[in-house]
Amino acid sequence: MNQHFPNPGRPVDQPAFNLPSVVFWLGAIMIGIHILRVLVLPDSWNSQILLYFAFWPVRYDPELLASGMAPGGLAADIWAFVTYGLLHGGATHIIFNLLWMAIFGSAVARRFGTWRFLVLSALCAIAGAATHLLFHFGESAPMIGASAAVSGHMAAALRFVFELGGPLGAFRRQDLGAYRMPAASLRDSLANRQVLGFIAVWFGLNILFGIMSTPVTGGSASIAWEAHIGGFLMGLLLFPLLDPVPRRLR
Asked: What pLDDT score does 9 carry?
């Protein structure tokens, strides 16, 4: 019997460096914002950008939230759940995030297309911020970086990249069809040794970073590991809701 591979629609264009357009331009926006903040704008402007667009757990203190006295008011209370992901603390921080987004985000973008990819990224960033808030409620240190969204990309990619015919499968296709192979259920994915091994190592490293609280992002801030986990779990759960490829038939 011939196997027919589903076509979820027009594949994402492949511009420079063989990256999907949405990944290329999202990375370019992050780099542009970072260069603008660090090299172009005065320090006072950079401080204002952080006040308005970074994620500050202290903003959600009930009294401050009710007063609306935080910079940007209610609007900033809402958009900060996403905009913090466009800001980075240093060159090492942004390079690492863009590297992982190029690897895992590209795989997801090729499967999802532009708008599904952006929705996944935004919702994983929101989940990461909410998880961070849960563990750091009322704290005055800001959180920035795309790591929660990128963690969601990793989780979503794990749902299909190791499947037979997938880009990292034991038997893999060499064309864009590799990114549109039917995905296994979450239960079956977690039974895959490659997927399970990746998740175990990933969670172990994040927990280790949390215990050590090591500043490895090129600045003085430690890793917001709780946000990574929140974004990762959201990516796992959102995948079947956003996946345009029909599920595998048993």
From this structure: 43
Which of 112, 122, 166, 150 shows the shortest CA–CA distance to 229?
150
Asked whether 183 and 107 are in contact (CB, 8 A), the reply is: no
Question: What DSSP string runs through 101-135?
Answer: IIIIIHHHHHHH-HHHHHHHHHHHHHHHHHHHHHH
- Residue 60's identity, in one-letter code, is Y
Nearest-angstrom CA–CA distance, 50 and 30:
14
Beta strand extents in the chain (DSSP E only) = none
Helix (H, G, I), strand (E, B) or coil at 152: helix
The beta-carbon contacts of 73-76 under 8 Å, at least 24 apart in sequence, are 76/52
Number of Cβ atoms within 10 Å of the Cβ of 201:
10
pLDDT of residue 143: 93
Tens digits of residue pLDDT in 119-160: 999 999 999 999 999 999 988 889 999 999 999 999 999 988
Q: Which of 23, 17, 2, 7 is nearest to 179 (CA)?
A: 7
3-class SS of residue 191:
helix
For 153-207, how does the pLDDT look when each residue is reduced to its tens digit (9 = 90+)?
999 999 888 876 666 654 456 667 778 888 878 888 888 888 888 888 888 877 7
Close Cβ partners of 83 (under 8 Å, ≥ 6 residues apart): 53, 54
Neighbours of 129 (CB within 10 A): 26
Task: Specify the pLDDT at position 220.
Answer: 45
